[in-house]
Amino acid sequence: MIVKPFRSNRVLQGLVLWLVLLWIITAINPLYPKDWLLENLLVFFYAALLVLSYRHFQFSNLSYLLFGVFLSLHLVGAHYTYAETPFGFWMQTLFDFERNHYDRLVHFSFGLLLACPLREILLRKSGVNTAWSYFIAVNCIGAFSAVYEILEAIAAEIVSPELGTAYLGTQGDEWDAQKDAFLAIIGAIIAMLAAWLQARRKDAIN
Q1: Which of 80, 103, 145, 179 has the fewest CB atoms nearer than 10 Å to its CB?
Q2: Burial letters for 27-43: b for 16+ Cβ neighbours within 10 Å, e otherwise?
Q3: Helix, strand, coil: what percent of the chain each, to 5?
Q4: What φ, ψ does residue 100 adopt, rounded to 5°?
Q5: 1 in a domain, yes or no?
Q6: CA–CA dist 142, 135 (Å, integer)
Q7: Which domain holds residue 39?
Q8: 176 located within any domain
Q9: Are 158 and 170 in contact (CB under 8 A)?
């Protein structure tokens, strides 16, 4: 794949501008400033990783857009905390949920939105068989979700123990981590089914 310079990629430029503006907006008077900083540590890390890897591995514009949607959801959640995001309260009222499910939405979106970029890496760098790439991508999402839950708990304990509940967003659910990982896997399965159907449709046309 030919690397397209950032200066000539209008889609990526627009996406970066949107994320910077959203980050500035959500950085203004966050509900819990310490929690906001803790949540954004991961944003800084992954944004830097994407920037540094751009010249060596360039994702498709679709994958960058998927990254952008996921980061947007995360930035909004970091501003309010996942347990107190207004959109989550709206869903709670509309569907008569017992809790704010914005965190569940974001974990589901993790699998739904990031499985395709992950599969892109597998196909272009690991040499994995196309048929196996769908299955491996789903498994990797499940593994990343599990590792994230562990790292999240460790970070909360080390950096700011008093923010544990706000940062983890468990809302009193002892199975919160398992449910979050499960939803990420479901999202990844849906994304891979969609990718598989699209591939079959292309094969049929050709």
Answers
A1: 179
A2: eeebebeebbbbbbebe
A3: 80, 0, 20
A4: -75, 120
A5: no
A6: 11
A7: 6-205
A8: yes
A9: no
Residue 184, pLDDT score = 95
Provide the H-helix boundaries in 83-129. 86-95, 102-121
Give the torsion sign (CA, 154, 144, 167, 16).
Answer: positive
Nearest to 19 by CA among 38, 36, 44: 44
Distance of CA 9 to the CA centre of its chain: 23
- How is residue 77 written in tokens? 């959640």
* Amino acid at site 101: H
In a domain, 36, yes or no: yes
Structural domains counted in the chain: 1
170-181 pLDDT per residue, tens: 555 566 778 888
Burial class (CB in 10 A: 0-12, 13-18, 19+), 47: middle
- Which one-letter DSSP state was computed for residue 126? I
The whole model's pTM is what?
0.85
